[in-house]
Amino acid sequence: MREGHDAYIAYDIDRAAASYAKACTTNLPEARLAECSHYMAGIEQSRGHMAQAEALYLRALTQWEQAGPGYLSSRSTTLLNLGELYRQNQRPRDAEKRFLEAINLAGTPEALSRLGGLYGESDRPESGRPLLAEAIEKMAALAPQPTAQLAYAHNALGMIDLTAGQFVAGETHHREAVSLG
């Protein structure tokens, strides 16, 4: 599993897929099978195979649920990834449903941020503002700070500001996003 993860992080998708295929046998505990389905979904998503990725994320969600309550955080991550897949494929209602599930399940700042970002792209962008502000506040209090997620939230809030004509606030959030890397 580690080899597959390392290959995926290095953007060697074919090596990652081969490593997961080798490591992910049917004789694994449910949580390990869920992990396999989750990572294979990410591989399929990166290859542009959205239907296969969706099916694997849905399988992972079922497997996480069967693995028990000790895997709520992992299940939440799968929900976020599935929501992003839907968002990228212009399925905002499906994305919203998955982001709300993640918020109800784990209440992570990242889930708040993703939903806020989705609303920011919608016909009701102001709905995203309080979610993004809360996410930023919660992430800023963490040590270490999740810089990529914090940058995403600042960028999304900056876009809402610009859409609302609040140019100074928008620029401030965008500068903060850039400074976070």
Q: How would you describe the overall organization of this protein?
A:
- The relative contact order is 0.07.
- The chain is mainly α and 181 residues long.
- It has helices at 2-9, 13-23, 30-46, 50-67, 72-88, 92-106, 109-120, 128-140, 147-163, 167-180.
- It is elongated, with a radius of gyration of 17 Å.
- Helix 5 (72-88) runs antiparallel to helix 6 (92-106), helix 7 runs antiparallel to helix 8 and helix 8 packs antiparallel against helix 9.
- It is built from 10 helices and no strands.
- The protein starts with a helix and ends with a helix.
In short:
The protein is mainly alpha-helical. Helices cover 78% and strands 0% of the residues. The protein starts with a helix and ends with a helix.
Total count of helical runs of at least 4 residues = 10
Q: What does the overall shape look like? A: elongated
Computed structural class: mainly alpha
Give the H and E element order: HHHHHHHHHH
The description of the largest β-sheet is:
none
Helix content: over 70%
Number of DSSP-assigned strands: 0
Oligomerization state: single chain
Secondary structure layout plus pairing:
Layout: H1 2-9, H2 13-23, H3 30-46, H4 50-67, H5 72-88, H6 92-106, H7 109-120, H8 128-140, H9 147-163, H10 167-180
Any key phrases for this structure?
mainly alpha, 10 helices, 0% strand
